[in-house]
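tool_log.txt
---
The assistant was asked to compare two proteins side by side. It first ran the structure predictor on the initial sequence, then on the second. Raw inputs and outputs are pasted verbatim so the downstream comparison step can read them without reformatting.
(1)
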Amino acid sequence: MYEDLFIAGEIHKKVSKLAFGELKQGLSFVNFSEFVEKKILDLGGGFGFPVCISVNGVAAHDVARFNDDRIFNKDDLVKIDFGVHVNKWMTDAAFSKYLGTDVKIKNLVTASSKALSACEEVLKPGVEIGVLGKAMGEVITGMDFNPIKNLTGHGVDKGRVHTNPNIPCYDTGSKEKIPVNKIMAIEPYATLGRGLAVDDPRSEIFRLANDKKNIRSFGARKMLDWIKKERGFMPFCTRWIPNYSKGGEFYLNTLIQQGIVKAYPILNEIDKGLTSQAEHTYVFYEKEVVKVT
């Protein structure tokens, strides 16, 4: 079971290692994203979702967009979160890298990584979600940081990167158990802020939501055809859309307004508190839990 998923996992592990080494001060978001994407393709994978580059107080869902001129700066705390798919079976994993020397911020990066390790120690078939959250939350608060309570781990299905159930990184007391043969991405977030993610006005990740509606605009129809053919219901970003400079923003907004495409906002920590993230993908079999990434 899940042969393609484990192939994607091997690709993900190799690319993550290369990406960690490539990430450095002065590199542009676009060049870094293209580096990651090229390595995924070279190894035989596809893009599960755009490479998320969330810096400092941005917790999640920021990506290198069309005409992006941002670069990594000294003292940036960077979260890199990306997906690899093989025949739409996809992985979801992330790492944090701090480009400075402050000891407290280094500890913040360690906190999310240690929280995930603590969670792995209690992973077993039929484990209660509250047990997993407790393991992660105790590590984060024990290091004098806060978990982000409304960013959670989640199920992953074929062609779908976010499904139920959700796994918060603090103790909810939930008795719900992880289903058998379920793919799960577990991702603790640690922050210097209060621990709440809020929507930014901007959205940089998009996904087809309804492929049954008709649309009059020729340009919007052409964009929709590209989305259906190249992405299906998997997420995409503006940088991937062909000829986006020629009316692409208008056509994409048309699809969003018609309910055909869903936009996912960038997520900021409410205090813009520095935030770290760690994440891996696992399969919960009947008799064991296997790490994919």
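(2)
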Amino acid sequence: MALETEVWSGDIEENLFANNSFVQKGVDHSGWINHKTVHIPQAGANPVVKKDRATLPATIGQRTDTDLTYNMGQYTTNPLLITDLEDLQISYSKRQSVWRQHIDTLGDAIGNHTAFNWSPSGDARIVRTSGSASALSLAPGATGTRLALVLANITAARAVLDYDNVPAEGRIMLIPSDIYNNDLLNIADTVRFDAMGQSNLPTGVVARLFGFDIMIRPSVSVYDNQATPVIKPVADDGVATEATDNNMAILCFHPNFVAQAVGSTKIFFNEDAPEYYGSILSGEQMFGAAKLRTDQKGIVAIIQAA
């Protein structure tokens, strides 16, 4: 059944990130995979500069480099029982309908894990929303009200990236759809870019604001409500742990400071299993994502404040 396996595997590779195009915005490390681990060299400290050096010989130093690594994750779908394989082979639309749900679910989980792995921590990497209280944009399981996003929050995030000497071109703001629709588009000055159709949907970019290409997805990252917010862990399916005081976050980053690695795609196929009176199929995708710098430069989170 090599032909059928090849077709199903191709479906995963082609459609996995169709609704999660932001995942492919980072530096591609797919060619750097050593077994299940990606190795990223981290350059040591810059050399010391002296003006009008009076003492010779100059002090000789040595740069100490470090190795940042991240592991590939094994993402698998639960086995799918197919009771009429021949019909699925003949009817491409039916085969797509059966398998697309698995691909979309797999892609969403990988997208959520990618957002989690790219999200920063620490006060220097966080901006809090400061608008009026709004109950329209809440993380799953959250209650109460949150302060709405205002333009000053976006310019504050931009200032952090400016201070990091991050290139101005190519910056991305990945925003939860609820915050985009309920907060950002309710700011009078931002309604115009949406009404005028300033979008680039094939790349996932819906608008551009303050130098950020805006991308939307239902969920980005979720943080707790501590004074210095901590990102909430995500389950295997990429869903964040729910709590009433959770806060949604917007992820602002430059692609040069994050990375992803797409590993092997494999289809497991058990044809005509007698105990199930049909054929069983499941898929596996190896994938990893990480921040590229230990100091987290090039990444900022705008987090809701209560």
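---
observation on (2): The helical segments are 2-15, 85-90, 92-118, 151-163, 177-182, 188-195. Residues 1-42+67-306 form a domain with the phage-related protein like fold fold (CATH 3.90.1690).
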